[in-house]
Specification:
Blueprint (H helix, E strand, L loop, with lengths): L1 H25 L1 H23 L30 H37 L1 H15 L3 H12 L4 H11 L2 H14 L3 H8 L4 H9 L4 H24 L11 H5 L5 H6 L2 H28 L5
Length: 293
């Protein structure tokens, strides 16, 4: 009897997975987004593994247009722009993925605690999130960067994680407040199951879908945040070739008008990756939304 139940569960899970895959594949924009994200990520990783030279200036090759051995041309001090875009992608994608995942974990844990226990615990956590949300996030990040007063990748990751958990927190809190009254939760409580087990083993699996979608879209958000801060000189150190730092050279009017390739290619890389992530997130939301199952 137990074997039959396990087989039925396995068959049902396999059937739901196939159904979700077919549904995802029918969303052409989501498939294109997944393809672009995977392609760009693999290209950046291969570039890093291959050890492309992105940091050696060649004074005789300064501001060279695309061609003549330089696919994307060279920057203001003669560094190969294609190599810099590849390595910059590694840093920018790392920043986006790391901050999105860690901030989602923090937001999910705090949201679970607030939504499940309620009362004073919920009130305190909600007030803390409201304090963070009282400022536009970019302004809040700029304030923290100014307080830290040191540009660096570690500091930027820390600041993004500290300021990026509120959206996931609100979403998970609302889900927990609606799910904690369900019958299966009451049954678990009646059998004496601990609060931690109910929160993270019983309710959390039913909240994973919106968390996954939120994490995906936050990757694009943090990449744009990094690019914005680096462009105005508040991001990572200039020696770290993120996409935003590469764009930083385009603040000069002469660069914008005469050396278009210096800002077009890194700007195009940011736009393509962020747009692809958004398409992918929309596709995952359509597939994982329980209301549409």
């Amino acid at each position: 009897m137990r074997v039959n139940l396990q087989e039925q569960k396995s068959t049902a899970s396999s059937s739901l997975l196939k159904k979700n895959v077919r549904k995802f594949m029918r969303n052409k924009l989501a498939v294109i987004g997944l393809f672009v994200v995977v392609l760009m990520t693999i290209a950046c990783i291969i570039g890093a593994i291959a050890g492309v030279d992105y940091n050696t200036p060649v004074l005789t090759e300064m501001k060279k247009a695309p061609g003549n051995g330089h696919l994307f041309g060279t920057d203001t001090i003669g560094r190969d722009l294609f190599a810099r875009v590849l390595i910059g992608g590694c840093y920018s994608i790392l920043i986006g993925v790391f901050c999105a995942v860690l901030s989602s974990v923090i937001g999910a844990v705090l949201g679970a605690v607030a939504g499940f226990f309620g009362g004073k615990t919920d009130a305190i956590l909600v007030r803390v999130s409201e304090i963070f949300q009282a400022f536009p996030q970019l302004v809040l990040v700029m304030m923290l960067v100014a307080i830290v007063n040191k540009r660096g990748l570690t500091n930027l990751l820390f600041i993004f994680v500290v300021t990026g958990w509120m959206t996931t927190f609100r979403m998970v809190r609302n889900e927990y407040m609606s799910l904690k009254g369900e019958t299966y939760v009451k049954v678990c409580e009646a059998f004496g199951m601990s609060g931690n087990n109910i929160m993270f083993k019983q309710i959390l699996p039913n909240v994973m879908s919106p968390i996954i979608v939120s994490t995906t879209t936050n990757v694009a958000f943090f990449i744009l945040q990094e690019a914005s801060l680096s462009f105005i000189g508040l991001g990572v150190a200039d020696s770290t070739p993120t996409w935003g730092n590469i764009l930083n050279a385009a603040k000069s009017i002469s660069i914008v008008t005469d050396q278009w390739w210096i800002w077009v290619f890194p700007g195009l890389a940011i736009s393509l990756f962020v747009l692809a992530i958004n398409f992918l997130g929309d596709g995952l939301r359509d597939v994982l939304d329980a209301k549409q199952q």
